Amino acid sequence: MSPTVLVTGPTGTTGRATVQALLAAGATLRVASRQAADPRLPAGVAAVPFDWEDRRTWAPALDGVDALSLVTPSFHPDEGSLAADLAAAAVRAGVRRIVKLSAMGVEQMPENGHRQAEIAIERSGAAWIHLRPNFFMENFIHFYGEGIRTAGGIFLPAGDGASSFVAAADIGRAAAAALLSTRSGEAWDLTGPAALTHTEVAAILSAQRGTPVVYHALPADVARAQWASFGMSPFAIARMDMLYAAVSAGWCAAVTDTVARETGRAPLDFATWAHAQGPVWG
């Protein structure tokens, strides 16, 4: 009998992909949502009330669950303790497996909330696999798409560093594989098939749009001011600053075979992914 899997963050970039991959695998699925009838959820998917800010919803959502896909709210300053508390609640409820969406390289950053959450999960008593993806390809739609569409530019403090961008669909398939696995005690670095600089990304998007897209390498202080003008919190700005410092330093260029090994499918390359997005580029 298929294990019952609870997916947190089911309407987010990777959460939607995880839901689709679990459905394709025939998993018994429920999703944690503040809205019982969220139109963004696939038809027929069972939604259970869940709110990170209302811990009374946690135990009922976890009741009868075998495996938990744990995705914490983006840029949450208490991410480590929040994930630790949910992991503890999950184990009390009888959850046997926890798969945490983390980030590539966090094993080198003990102060990072993702890593603190990982450590708590490792100590929880549940079987576990950590997913550590590199930057999402979808960031160029959800976070940087407006600049691409309206100004023909990518504006980031990434220097000339390359990143092995990975598609959300590949992260979702890896998540489903981890959630339905019997293995434990592993961390999976998830990347696309190649590392690209943002200049190379701009060239791919230029070909897709038929009009130029230019990468503008912002100084870090200019980027911080820009993010502040968008209303980002100081915590989020500090996290972004750290991430792009790592890109500039060349620390995000590693390429792994994990997606192909764990899902049986080669990861999407950036050009194929960009073409599949169709008119989104404007």
Strand and helix map with partners:
Layout: E1 4-7, H1 13-24, E2 28-33, E3 46-49, H2 58-62, E4 67-70, H3 79-92, E5 97-101, H4 113-122, E6 127-133, H5 139-142, H6 145-151, E7 153-156, E8 162-163, H7 168-179, E9 186-190, E10 196-197, H8 198-209, E11 214-217, H9 220-229, H10 234-248, H11 258-263, H12 270-276
Parallel strand pairs: 1-2, 1-4, 2-3, 4-5, 5-6, 6-9, 7-11
Antiparallel strand pairs: 8-10
Helix pairs in contact: 1-7, 3-4, 8-12, 9-10
Report what the structure shows.
With 282 residues, the chain is an alpha/beta fold. It has helices at residues 13-24, 58-62, 79-92, 113-122, 139-142, 145-151, 168-179, 198-209, 220-229, 234-248, 258-263, 270-276; strands spanning 4-7, 28-33, 46-49, 67-70, 97-101, 127-133, 153-156, 162-163, 186-190, 196-197, 214-217. It has a seven-stranded parallel sheet, sandwiched between helices. A two-stranded parallel sheet has the order 7-11. A two-stranded antiparallel ribbon has the order 8-10. The model has no long low-confidence stretch (mean pLDDT 95).
